[in-house]
Write a structure and sequence with these properties.
- With 273 residues, the chain is an alpha/beta fold.
- Helix content is 31%, strand content 28%.
- It contains 9 helices and 10 strands.
- The protein has helices at residues 23-26, 33-46, 66-71, 91-105, 148-164, 178-186, 199-202, 207-215, 232-237; strands at 11-15, 48-53, 56-61, 78-86, 110-117, 168-174, 194-198, 219-223, 243-255, 260-272.
- The protein has a 10-stranded mixed beta sheet with strand order 2-3-1-10-9-4-5-6-7-8.
- The chain is globular.
Length: 273
């Protein structure tokens, strides 16, 4: 669809803007996370506006009211949260994702940020595979992935700096088993205050995980996100077969006093294979 834009540039950032103002998307409430992202990208590509900035390209959607929706309320009256999906260990990717998020929303502070880091295994039969298959009642994270815990701590230290600088309020982590969560908690300066577990495992929440979160005042939440939000097949369907998703961010803006969702969208960084 827009793969031709990558012929001249190694990287491309796609920002869907506020998808709540897209009528076709409003009619599809309750979609699976990947389907929602795909439809949001298709809508963005259908009315794309390309912005050149410092040698990079940003693709966004025309008639986007994201900043207007945010400015309708004072910063103290809204709650801004986001989740970053990262399937490759890269400190620069995570930093880039956070900085572009601040820039896109034109804010200097996030109320909360959750990291979903699911490192890839080695290539098997020419196909990249993701570790940590979600099974009912079982949480397994990064099984067989070399030094996943050490890499996670390096990524977490980046987020800690933002929290220490008062740029992020709460830090959260997704899909860790109790041992991995314990390692992260005990090895961090700014502890995770939110832990997300997949809905596929939440019917039987591991008692040890529940006990550890309760003991350390970690809010235990559920989600339905896949471990890879933009898998290879989806990129192929979007005519982006020559691309990889370096990272994906989903953001939400709520009005505090009413709990109303004011804005929601995605940011995706694409690069050549």
């Amino acid at each position: 669809m827009l793969s031709h834009l990558l012929k001249e540039n190694a990287k491309l950032t796609v920002s869907t803007g506020n998808v709540l103002n897209v009528s076709d998307l409003r009619k599809k409430a309750g979609q699976k996370p990947t389907d929602e992202l795909v439809d949001s990208l298709r809508s963005t590509f259908a009315e794309a506006e390309v912005v050149e900035s410092g040698g990079s390209r940003l693709v966004t959607r025309k008639n986007n009211d994201l900043l207007e929706k945010i400015k309708e309320h004072s910063r103290t009256d809204i709650k801004v949260g986001a989740k970053i999906f990262l399937n490759h260990f890269s400190e620069s990717y995570l930093t880039e994702a956070v900085e572009i998020l601040f820039e896109t929303l034109n804010v200097s502070y996030l109320d909360n940020l959750i990291l979903a880091f699911h490192p890839r295994t080695v290539v098997s039969n020419g196909v990249d595979e993701i570790n940590g298959e979600v099974k009912e009642g079982v949480i397994e994270w990064a099984v067989g992935s070399e030094n996943a815990g050490g890499n996670l701590r390096k990524l977490w230290s980046i987020l800690e700096k933002y929290a220490t600088d008062k740029k992020i309020g709460q830090l959260g982590i997704a899909d860790l088993d109790v041992d991995s969560l314990k390692d992260l908690y005990e090895g961090s300066t700014v502890h995770p205050s939110i832990a997300q577990i997949n809905l596929a495992a939440c019917c039987v929440v591991p008692p040890q995980l529940q006990e550890y979160c309760s003991k350390n005042e970690i809010q235990l939440l559920t989600h339905s996100d896949p471990q890879e939000l933009l898998p290879r097949q989806v990129l192929d369907d979007l005519e982006l077969s020559t691309c990889l998703a370096a990272w994906t961010t989903r953001f939400q803006v709520h009005i505090k006093c009413r709990g109303v969702l004011a804005a929601k969208g995605f940011i995706v960084s694409l690069s050549h294979k």
